Amino acid sequence: MKVLRIGAAALVAAFVSGQALADTVKVGIIAPFSGPFAHYGKLFKDGAEAYVKTQQGKFAGHDIQFIYRDSGGPNPGGVKTAAQELIVNDKVDYLGGFVFTPNAMAVAPLIQQSKTPTVIFNAATSSITPKSDYFVRSSYTLWQVTVPLAQWAHEKGLKKVVTAVMDYAPGVDGEKAFDTEFTKLGGEVVDRIRMPMSTNDFSPFAQRIKASGAQAAYIFLPGGPPNLGFVNAYNQNGLREAGIEFLGTAEMDEFDLQKFGDAALGLMTSFHYSAAHDSDANREFAKAMKEQAADSLLNYASVGAYDGMRLIHKMVEATDGKKDGAKAIEAIKGFEWESPRGPAKIDPETRHITQNVYLRKVERGADGKLQNTEIENFGPQADHGLE
Amino acid sequence: MPQLSNILIDGVVYGMVLFIISVGLSVTMGLMRFINLSHGAFAMAGGYVAALLIREQGFSFAAGVVLAMLFSMALAAVLEMFVFRHLYKKSELQQVLFTIGFTFACIATANFLAGAYIQTLPLPEWMQGSMALGQRTLPKQRVVVVFAGLFVVLLLWLLVARTRFGIWLRASVDNAGMSSSLGINIRLVQCATFAIGAGLAALGGVLGAELMPLEPYYPLKYLVLMLVVVAVGGLGSISGTLCAALFLGIIDTASRYLASDFGNLFFYAAMILLLAVRPHGILRR
Predict the structure, then answer these.
(1) Which candidate in A39, A42, A166, A201 is best for mutational testing of the B interface (most B CBs within 10 A)?
(2) Do A36 and B2 touch (CB under 8 A)?
(3) Which of chain A's residues have a Cβ under 8 Å away from the Cβ of B13?
């Protein structure tokens, strides 16, 4: 009997510790998987899973399980419900994803209360991370990439710049960032054009930019049709010939880049990631993505997810796979690593990524495809929107 | 003064783009009195076929456009014979529900077949670049759109007002039973008219693609724009649709030059005003 009891106890102990060793870490990803923004979901999924595969499916010996939830477009109510289900029913250890700012904002109280570390793969408004102590961001903010661009414009001797942004929150954010920095340095913003969201004919705005007498135009446009329409208008209305420099941020994103054709050649953007970034880490990322899916794409969204999982990896290591949000978030503050975009660090105060921002120019690469060639490194930039 | 001439030039050109994407709807909804919210889907189908032929198969632009129009017409004719014809006698609400549902199905199909990407349509040499127009430049592609628009107006006017087919069409819309008993093959007339509408939709999809790029959500994104133009123009009036498109194009362009902070306020204000003053169409009292 006694032997049996000891045996049973040992078995139980072995089972319990075995359980502890094999703790599965659950990561809930909230992103658009349907509707007009569904490509973001795919980019996130590819990026996140590619990273986990580079670690043979385990972080610090723990299996990683993804649970995906569809957010559709900007949908704070639905996203809040999805996050609640993930936290309460599925008992996820981490949350990730978030394309749109309102969606990220909506989960702040939930993650604060449940102490769930949440990695933002994309949503780029400065004011998100202060909303909860458990937010970490692996993407960028408009201030982060715009401020060094304004400084560069000033150093290049540009005196008059016009801003032309799409009239919604991120556009206004970009306009403010450029305006504030450029004016502070003594430059003049000669016109602040806000283009309605539904604009499809950009000729009037191109003509206004031409008439404003500016030497360069700071542009902000969301991806897709408006982007294409504007770049066409820029060329067809003779802005290129007039030498009015195009200064953008995310406009030349790899997702749409090949669609522009020659119209995009020479356009300049200030951004944190280019698929053409020359580093071993980026080549490794490219390889991992190719193995993940043949139709995968390297861009800011997939690198945001890839690095986002790098952060979760670090947090899992620090907590040995146990649910301890406070300890996890402490471990990520000040964390430095080599990202495919270059050296990166999580700022301990803002929990936003500090990273190099580059000035890039659209050129044809060796394979004849368009690429963003980095022509200048602005060095490590914090989120200037929170300073 | 350059401001004023800019507004007029860009306004007329934009108006012509509005016309070319809406004229097909003016035919099905205006002439046939069929609420066809899937108009954009036929435009997209045509546009996708044109993109495929011109970009991937190396067809010339003109050949691609003609084949795309024929494709849309054939597709519409088949669908009309088996599906849409049953809706003519249904209530307007049922027409709306069916055609919008059909539109969603088309969006999903486009997404499935070609992905969420924008389909680019390479322009031929003679349509690339800009031409000088006084002190400013105008994209050649837009000039082509203006002439194509005028050509379509002329052809449609001739077809409706001067041909036997036009007489049949007007008769069968006004009184289907009587026309039928007079020996008009109204089934053929309806089917052909629906196909013509779809063909014009394809033309609009291709020629308007510079401003309204082809992507899976195309049929929904520009639907309101098309409906506004047709409603303001007055049902069944091709010339009314042209006037409405030009007028709204100029209003929208002027607001982009002078008061872009107001968004589309003036466009919709103009629509409300015109519909209040001329509920039956811009050219009718």
Answers:
(1) A201
(2) no
(3) 203
**What predicted TM-score, i.e. pTM, was given to this entire model?**
0.86
Q: How far apart are CA A2 and CA A359, in angstroms?
A: 74
What per-residue confidence (pLDDT) applies to A18?
42
Nearest-neighbour CA in chain B from A42: distance (Å)? 11
Residue-level pLDDT at A2: 53
Q: Is residue B107 part of a domain?
A: yes
Per-residue pLDDT at B264: 85
CB atoms within 10 A of CB B79: 18
Domain locations in chain A as residue ranges: 8-140+278-351, 143-271+357-386
Instruction: Establish whether domains A8-140+278-351 and A143-271+357-386 are of one fold.
Output: yes
pLDDT the model gives residue A22: 56
CATH of domain A8-140+278-351: 3.40.50.2300
Please state, in angstroms and as integers, the Cα–Cα distance from residue B140 to each residue in A54, A82, A326, B7, B195, following that order: 51, 50, 62, 18, 29
The CATH number of the domain where B65 resides is what? 1.10.3470
CA of A208 vs chain B CAs: smallest distance (Å): 7
Domain that holds residue B43: 2-121+133-277
Residue of A nearest to B250 (CA): A204
Q: What is the mean pLDDT of each run of 10 residues along chain B (285 residues)?
A: 83 93 90 90 95 92 95 96 91 94 95 87 85 80 91 92 91 86 91 94 93 92 93 88 94 91 89 92 81
Query: Which string of DSSP letters, residue by residue, matches B49-116?
Result: HHHIIIIIS---HHHHHHHHHHHHHHHHHHHHHHTGGGGTTS-HHHHHHHHHHHHHHHHHHHHHHH-S
Within a domain: residue B284? no
Q: Which portions of chain A are predicted below pLDDT 50?
A: 1, 11-21
Cβ neighbours of B212 in A, within 8 Å: 200, 225
Which chain A residues are Cβ-neighbours of B120 within 8 angstroms?
Answer: 259, 261
Which pLDDT score, from 0 to 100, does residue A19 have? 45
pLDDT score of A238: 86
Number of folded domains that form chain B? 1
Residue B47 lies in a domain: yes
Q: Which residue of A has its CA nearest to B2?
A: A211
Per-residue pLDDT, A53: 95
From A273's Cα to the closest Cα of chain B, the distance in A is 21
**Whether B17 and A195 lie within 8 Å, measured CB to CB:** no
Measure in Å the smallest separation between the Cα of A120 and chain B Cα atoms: 23
The verdict on a CB contact (< 8 Å) between A204 and B257 is yes
Q: What is the pLDDT of residue B1?
A: 59
Alpha-carbon gap: A229 to the closest alpha carbon of chain B (Å) = 6
Name the pairing type of β-strands A135-137 and A118-120.
parallel
In a mutagenesis test of the B interface, which of A40, A200, A208, A230 is the best target, namely the one with the most B β-carbons within 10 Å? Answer: A200
d(CA B149, CA B16): 6
Query: What is the Cα–Cα distance from A95 to A82, expressed in whole angstroms?
Result: 11
Does B285 fall in a domain? Answer: no
Specify the CATH number of the domain A143-271+357-386: 3.40.50.2300
**Residues comprising chain A, all counted:** 387
CA distance A318 to B265: 55
